[in-house]
Amino acid sequence: MYKTLENSVGDTPLVRLKRLPGAACDARGNVVLAKLEGNNPAGSVKDRPALSMIVHAEQRGDIKPGDTLIEATSGNTGIALAMAAAMRGYRMILVMPENQSVERRQTMRAFGAELVLTPRDGGMEVARDVAESMRNEGRGIILDQFANPDNPLAHYTGTGPEIWRQTEGRISHFVSSMGTTGTIMGVSRFLKEQDPGICIVGCQPEDGSQIPGIRKWPEAYLPKIFDRARVDRIESVAQGEAEEMTRRLAREEGIFAGISSGGALAVALRLAGELENATIVSIVCDRGDRYLSTGVFPA
Hints:
Layout: E1 14-16, H1 22-27, E2 31-36, H2 47-60, E3 68-72, H3 76-88, E4 91-97, H4 102-110, E5 114-118, H5 123-136, E6 141-142, H6 150-166, E7 173-177, H7 182-194, E8 199-205, E9 233-237, H8 239-253, H9 259-272, E10 279-284
Parallel strand pairs: 2-10, 3-4, 3-6, 4-5, 7-8, 7-10, 8-9
Antiparallel strand pairs: 1-2
Helix pairs in contact: 2-3, 2-6, 3-4, 6-7, 8-9
Binding site for pyridoxal 5'-phosphate: 76, 179-183, 260
Pathway: Amino-acid biosynthesis; L-cysteine biosynthesis; L-cysteine from L-serine: step 2/2
Family: Belongs to the cysteine synthase/cystathionine beta-synthase family.
């Protein structure tokens, strides 16, 4: 039976890293696994919440095909929403800082989305403010990935159960970069219901570091879906460390991923140096091809 594109979201591979963990990790009995979310149709973990938010809003009668949707995004959610909007017949307006990679903008436009670019100095905070102003002017409906419970729900019903099944319940540590925080919130909720002893580790950028997809929000802009109690440990990662690990992930494991994935993996390997007999799962959020123009990868 043929799948629809919607039914192709999720069920992404979980692969064991062979070279990056090194002999010391193996000697300690640790296993480091990478969840390849770039295998989703639009290329990132955000395909899950994008489809979830649209489908559940339709079911509630909040939106209908033909409506205009507005969303502030740094990239991946926007691309995923643009794909989902194209599938289900919506006009999509995406508001994003102007310094995001050209590949992201081109991909959004390829799916038919309209872009509103905001000043780079204002970051995502200004993009969110502009989106809300447009909504208040009656120009469209905001699904609001930062406050919408259908965002973490996608990971509670999808990503978390997949990881539990793929590790046969052996997972001991889950590592995820934190941006909107939907992934870590939904996965944490599911995994803790299976085994409260599983350690949930969030990854944030060090002060002064700018890592696409990883944020440390000012208190006023902290996502409403975020519940600090669902994260056992928060680790900081430097921009240079995340970028170098992203390059190594491609060179040494053959996994071409984005920079937030390198940040999360750097934290996962940090844990592997401390632990024994652990099964550590790290989220690879997206693919590296949408970062080629940033200079992170050698030309």
